[in-house]
Inverse folding.
């Protein structure tokens, strides 16, 4: 059985606030890639609870966080649909993502 590793390194300031986030995925030829934010979730096999690590660097701007969340939400809708084939709920979730994108001005408002 093949194993693969993804490594995340976080540099903290004196107050334990992230200053830098880097990650590597050697199997994908991604080495020491810089990031301003990360969201990591694990669904625990035994407790059936979601364990999360959400980090962002202190130089992350609000407009960048808006874009990060918009793109993450879009991706989550796609993943949810691929995993469940629940087209109705995925479509409704996508409507919220559209609303979020418009409200944060990441995307232009659709004409009514």
């Amino acid at each position: 059985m093949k194993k693969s590793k993804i490594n995340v390194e976080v540099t903290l300031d004196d107050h334990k606030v992230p200053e830098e986030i880097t990650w590597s995925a050697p199997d994908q030829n991604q080495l020491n890639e810089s990031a301003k934010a990360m969201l990591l979730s694990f669904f625990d096999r035994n407790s059936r609870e979601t364990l999360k690590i959400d980090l962002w660097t202190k130089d992350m701007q609000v407009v960048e966080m808006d874009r990060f969340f918009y793109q993450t939400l879009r991706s989550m809708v796609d993943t949810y649909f691929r995993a469940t084939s629940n087209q109705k709920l995925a479509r409704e979730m996508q409507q919220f993502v559209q609303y979020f994108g418009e409200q944060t001005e990441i995307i232009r408002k659709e004409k009514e």
About this structure: The chain has two domains: 1-58, 61-105. The chain has a mean pLDDT of 96. DSSP finds two helices and five strands in the chain. Residues 1-58 form one domain.
